[in-house]
Design a protein that fits this description.
Structural class: mainly alpha
Order of helices and strands: HHHHHHH
Number of helices: 7
Strand content: under 5%
Largest sheet: none
Helix content: over 70%
Shape: globular
Radius of gyration: 19 Å
Length: 164
């Protein structure tokens, strides 16, 4: 046991860097696909499902509901296509231990995104007690009210806060 721990210890920083980089790439990819495909007619069925369902049920004056209305019109499977393509390439490029870290981080990142989206849209979420959650929820709602990409809205608010 001691020998195994001493062998893995030097790899921990590399595992952490891999996990953080994977999360950032997943977040960027989800944001890019969401904005460039799910909000533009070029996205075809993905666009229609997203706009006709998520942005219809959660728009303007009805951004929350008693239960999450996400079972119909779910666009999650569309995001798996590029994830599996990248994952397949990574399998051949990365050592197995880093590939496993990347897979675990990808799943965790994707789950966190879906988890928070659901909590943003449910009345009385237990996360409402946290200021950071309320801020992120409000940024998310700006996106729904104005159909503005969240990253653009965050940048705009940051420039207003800094006086620019």
């Amino acid at each position: 046991m001691h020998q195994m721990v001493s062998q893995l210890l030097p790899e921990v920083p590399l595992f952490l860097v891999t996990a953080v980089a994977t999360h950032l790439v997943m977040s960027f990819g989800q944001t890019l696909l969401h904005y460039k495909v799910a909000h533009h007619p070029i996205g075809g069925k993905l666009f229609r499902n997203h706009i006709n369902f998520h942005h219809t049920h959660y728009a303007d004056d009805h951004l929350v509901s008693r239960t999450y209305l996400g079972h119909e019109g779910n666009i999650t499977p569309y995001f798996f296509i590029p994830v599996f393509l990248v994952g397949g390439c990574a399998y051949f490029l990365l050592p197995l231990n880093l590939f496993v870290v990347m897979v675990i981080a990808s799943v965790a990142s994707f789950y966190a995104h879906v988890f928070f989206d659901k909590k943003y849209h449910v009345e009385g979420s237990w996360l409402q007690r946290f200021a950071w959650f309320r801020r992120q929820q409000e940024l998310h709602f700006v996106h729904h009210r104005r159909n503005v990409p969240v990253a653009v809205e965050i940048g705009r608010q940051a420039s207003i806060a800094s006086g620019h």
